[in-house]
Automatic annotation (TrEMBL):
Enzyme class per UniProt: transferase
Listed name of the protein: Ribosomal protein L11 methyltransferase
CDD domains: AdoMet_MTases
Function per UniProt: Methylates ribosomal protein L11.
GO BP field: methylation
SUPFAM superfamilies associated with the record: S-adenosyl-L-methionine-dependent methyltransferases (SSF53335)
Coiled-coil zones: none
GO CC field: ribosome
HAMAP family, per the entry: Methyltr_PrmA
Superkingdom of origin: Bacteria
Amino acid sequence: MPWLQVRLAIGPEQAETYEDALLDIGAVSVTFMDAEDQPIFEPDLNTTPLWSHTHLLALFEADTSPDAVFAHLRLLTSAELPEHHAEVIEDQDWERSWMDNFHPMRFGQRLWIVPSWHDAPEPGAVNLRLDPGLAFGTGTHPTTALCLEWLDGQTLTGTQVLDFGCGSGILAIAALLLGAEKAVGTDIDVQALEASRDNAGRNGIADHQLDLHLPENMPALQADVLVANILAGPLVSLAPTLASHVRPGGLLALSGILAEQGTEVAAAYAEAFELDPIAERDGWVRISGRRRA
């Protein structure tokens, strides 16, 4: 069925007021959308920042009067409305539309990420079954792609890999499929660990191959390979800790880093690692290197 979509151009200080008001008058959903392609990079802990120019989108049943919606909003907020607009939009099969946008993705020479509803383009390649989505990392973001391509270029046979901030487990699972003997994954989010465990099972990874822990429960180890796709701030502050988890001669790959943050992050690891040239894609970078003896 069709829907009435109401759009308001608001500032972040108006978000809560108008969200509550729209829900009070019967909106079935309320969504915030960036109005100017303005990035938000590293929000403060326990904050949910909004863009300085935000569009608030609300859906109502199609027979709802837009004039009535706007009149009620004026009454509830006791203020003149910001720039606003209403239109009727047609319904569609949103799940099918979403699925149609995702196809198998190749990383490097051997590795493919293949959604569950697709056949593998190269059955004999290394095919990691993972459905793209918003949570935890699925290969669609440049930082994940940079790490996957790096893993594909390494000789991982028989190695032990540490995936620090494992999310969906995509990097640890890729390493195991590429020949690593064992992987350890750690994340501060229990749901991420569950997602990693589920994704490992879908890819035929045995329980003993992937060891998952909260950071406070992670065993002491020095891995042959460490990958961490998190954020620049934590990567800088955790540099001594992460270095201690890589054996002499072991390999390191870091991402989740904006291009303008690359120099700072590299400097935090330069003493402990012989670093490669920084790799960049779409404004994000990967820093890699080998642990000094």
